Amino acid sequence: MSKPTGARVILRNLATACFRWALLIVVCVLIAIGLAVLGCAPHVLLGYGLGGVGAFGAAAVVVMLMGVALALLSWSFGPKRLLLSLLLLFVGASLLLTFPPKWAIRCFEEPGGPVFFLPTAEPLAALTIDDGVDPATTPLILEVLRTTGARATFFVLAESAEAHPELVEQIVREGHELGNHQIRDVPAVTLTPDELARQLNDADAILRRFGPVRWLRPGGGFVNDDVKRVAKRLDCQIALGSAFPMDPYIHSPRFVAAYLLGRVQPGAIVVLHDCGARGERTATALAAAIPQIEAQGIKLVTLSELAEASRN
C-alpha cells in the first residue's frame, strides 16, 4: 500500500485543523449562548434583580465571555481538564457576581431605568439599608451612623413603620431619608401587577406621613415594567446598587466590612440589611468600616445627596 504523498498529507492536516477550529468555534458559540440565556433570561423575564440586586444581572455579560474562555481551556488541555475548567468558571463567575466591574453594571443601565451607580466627582457614596425597622437592631445602626456622622437611605417596610412609628420618626429626625420597600418583604416578581401596585401605593402613603419619599426599591430588587410604571406614577426613582456584600447570606461582619472598604468608591450605592441578626451584623460591620472609608476621604450619604452631587 502506497504512502500518502506530501501534498495529501498537507491537505489532510489542513482539513483536520480546519475541522478542529470549526468545532472550537461552534463549542464557543454554544457555551456563550447557553450562558447568555442562563444569565440574561432572568433579567428579561423577572427584571434587573437577578439574585436580589441589579449587579447580578450585569455580570451575565462577563459570565458569557468566560464561557468562551472555558471552551478554549477545554480544547487546549483536553477533555480530562473539562471538570477543572468548569470549576474555574464557577469560582470566577461567583467572584464576578460578588464583585461586578463597573463597566458590566453599566451594560444594564438605561435612561429612566433603575440606578445602580451615580457617578460624581465628589468623594461621596450612598449607604442604603433595607428591611427595617426593627426595635432591637435599628437603634444600633442609628447609633453607629450618629457616632460616625454618616447618613443613609432606609428602605423601610411599611408594615414595620406602622408598628414602630417612633423609629421611623427618629430616622428622619437624625438626617436620614426614607425609601419605599413595599408593605412586606415579598419578592416583587411573585406579585401580580395589581398586588404590586397596591403594595407600593400603600407603602408610599404610609411613609409620606413621616417625610418625603423619593426612592423605591422593590422586594428582592426585582424590577420589571410594572415596577417602573408604579414608580413613575409615584414620582420615585428606582434604586438598586453597585456594592452588595450579600450580607443576608454571608454572616461575617468582618467580611462585610472588608468588602465595603474595597468596593466603596465615589458614586457607589451600598446595599445592606436591617432586622434581626442581619441588623446586628450590619451595625457591627458599619462600626468597623465607616472610619476606614472616611480615612480614604469618602463620605457615606443619602441617595438624594449623592444624586444631587451627581447632577452638579
Automatic annotation (TrEMBL):
GO terms for molecular function: hydrolase activity, acting on carbon-nitrogen (but not peptide) bonds. It comes from the Bacteria. One of its GO terms (biological process) is carbohydrate metabolic process. Residues 123-301 form the NodB homology domain. It holds the Pfam family Polysacc_deac_1. The chain crosses the membrane at residues 21-46, 52-75, 82-99. Gene3D superfamilies: Glycoside hydrolase/deacetylase. Keywords: Hydrolase, Membrane, Transmembrane, Transmembrane helix. SUPFAM superfamilies: Glycoside hydrolase/deacetylase. Its EC number is 3.5.1.-. This is Peptidoglycan-N-acetylmuramic acid deacetylase PdaC. InterPro entries: Glyco_hydro/deAcase_b/a-brl (IPR011330), NODB_dom (IPR002509), Polysacc_deacetylase_ArnD (IPR050248).
